[in-house]
Amino acid sequence: MESLREAGFALLMSFLCCLPTAPLGALPRYAGRNEPKGWKITVYSGIIALLFCWVAFSANTHGDMTLGLLAYAVAGIPLGAAVYGLVLRLRRRSENSKTSSQKKREQ
Fold it and tell me: pTM for the complete prediction?
């Protein structure tokens, strides 16, 4: 039971490390919201985060959790960009459905 408690604590800490860096991923996506290739920001930051995680977790640090926490923090950047991309897509879809229903009413 104790290992389950430790695993839950580690999951909570990893979430708390990702949370502050998520706006760093959403900001470039917000700045390029009118451009059609905004998904590239998510892909490039995801590749950088995967490389950073690979380096952090392959390094033999003998119990030091600093690189792991930094890897989780860097992983929050593409997570924030992806979440903002989904929100933007849903918002555009709802706006398009509103305008199409208004056009039908006018006809």
Answer: 0.70
